[in-house]
Amino acid sequence: MTNTALITGASRGLGLALARSLSGAGWELVLTARGADELEKAAAELGATAIAGDVADPAHRARLARAAPELDLLVNNASDLGTTPLPPLADYPLDTFAALLATNVTAPLALTQETLPALRRRRGAVVNITSDAATGAYEGWGGYGATKAALDQLSNVLAAEEPDVAVWWVDPGEMNTRMLADAVGAAEAAEATDPAAVATALHDLIRSRPASGRVSLQ
């Protein structure tokens, strides 16, 4: 039986690296991201299904769930960073924070709700990509970190409520991605870990299926 994964934020960075790793192991993939051109390129490379759109859009989430009626793995990887340069909480734009909550917290929960029936049938797994900003007091990272802390707790409770579905909230550590470059600059980001190496560790986690919980990959 072929395994199927749905990965958000799959056009670059960790999402794309994980898609490549799973594809190499024979997984069928449904990939989504907002950038249609990059996503179509990735899907063509991997023989995957590409559905471009915004995970914060309920209609888009419904399309994703319909595209994967039999699902073994949901990877909620898509995230927004928010305003850059990263502002202190005293000056954090509240409209930006509301948008971050919609993308980083509400969307993963809503997509999980959409796909849980399929995941339950296959005794599948949910991977929610979190961050050490969820637990550390890093100046400027309050808005983003608060959304990841909320995602951590949603994952924690989901794991308790869904014993037949594995739930891992995964801190991948600093990676050389466009998001990190936007936050700290390209030079510093270039010194971070290659997303491909993190994807290998994440694939190993998925394959070994440990108990649900928070996992740090670096």
- Average of pLDDT: 97
Instruction: Give the C-level CATH assignment.
Output: Alpha Beta
Gap between N and C termini, in Å? 32 Å
Structural domain tally: 1
Uncertain ranges:
none
- Binned strand content: 5-15%
What is the name of the CATH superfamily? NAD(P)-binding Rossmann-like Domain
Which bin fits the share of residues in helices?
Answer: 40-55%
How is the main sheet built? 7 strands, parallel
User: What is the CA-based Rg, rounded?
Assistant: 16 Å
Number of strands: 7
Shape descriptor reads globular
Keywords: Oxidoreductase
Protein name: SDR family NAD(P)-dependent oxidoreductase
Family: Belongs to the short-chain dehydrogenases/reductases (SDR) family.
Enzyme class: oxidoreductase
Protein topology:
Layout: E1 4-8, H1 13-24, E2 28-32, H2 36-46, E3 49-50, H3 58-67, E4 73-76, H4 94-121, E5 125-129, H5 142-161, E6 166-171, H6 178-184, H7 186-189, H8 195-208, E7 213-216
Parallel strand pairs: 1-2, 1-4, 2-3, 4-5, 5-6, 6-7
